[in-house]
Amino acid sequence: MKRDPCREAARGKDRRRKLAALLALASSLAAAPALAGVVTLTASRDNTVYAENGEWSNGAGEFLFSGRTAFSSSRRALLAFDVAGNVPAGSTINSATLTLHVSQSPGPSQPSPVPERFALHRLTAAWGQGTSDAGSPGGLGSPATVHDSTWTYRLWNTDTWATPGGDFNAAGSANAVVAVTNDGFFTWGSSAMIADVQDWLDNPVTNFGWVLIGNEAADKTARRFDSRENRNAAHRPVLTIDFTPPAGGTSR
Asked: Which of 67, 80, 235, 237 is the most buried (most CB within 10 A)?
């Protein structure tokens, strides 16, 4: 069969046009920004430490406590979240918010309970959660078990805090005003929290979570928050992270 130079030239031109289109598409896909993702994490561990007893804890209990009681005793709540296990490595953290549920506040018999400010501070040392369970209402704590954290011990009963009550950054990462309520959700969020979560993603060995500290200068300021073991799953601590995965990565 005799070859038709004009037809072959047209076919070659068509192939080149299709190849150019494919290359342009591939280039545009490579240049497209990665889609943002959002993950909602429940706490990987949490606990309460009690100032009046350096060997009491509430690792497996349904509740967390923070603030100062009517008996002039302080409590602090510890919380940690597995960031690196749930956000793709190399991602950029866009926002981070912590939501806690309050299930008990000073009651009507307490003189003039008022809204109180509760601050999150980044912890700087490892701590644990054992099997201690103070039950309900749980405010008095329970004897610590192996790996529990207490006011004295970050890991009972082998490793102590450098400073009783917890080792943490003096500057708070975020704070929120918590009303007097027995049923309310409250949220913490800030640029410092974003920086904390970004560092925990980039350097997981530094992820010791936060300690929640209330007003410890006055009595009757304590609040009872629900823990990761709370029977109502909707009331458990939640960290919501909005992130942008690295180029070529995928959101979860």
From this structure: 67
Q: Tally the domains of the chain.
A: 2
The whole-angstrom separation of Cα 232 and Cα 26 is 48
- Rounded to whole angstroms, the Cα distance separating 244 from 25 reads 22
d(C-alpha 131, C-alpha 144), whole Å: 8
CA distance 212 to 64: 10
| Cβ atoms within 10 Å, residue 6 | 8
Count CB atoms within 10 A of the CB of residue 72. 12
Q: Is 249 within the bounds of a domain? A: no
Retrieve residue 41's tokens. 């994490």
Q: Would 224 be classed as within a structural domain?
A: yes
How many Å is the Cα radius of gyration of the chain? 26
Domain extent for 187: 37-244
Do residues 74 and 144 make contact, with C-beta atoms less than 8 angstroms apart?
Answer: no
Q: What is the pTM of this model?
A: 0.85
How far apart (Å, rounded) are the C-alpha atoms in residues 1 and 221? 97
Q: How far apart are CA 175 and CA 177, in angstroms?
A: 7
51 and 18 share one domain:
no
> 65-122 pLDDT, tens per residue?
999 999 999 999 999 999 999 999 999 999 999 999 999 998 656 666 789 999 999 9
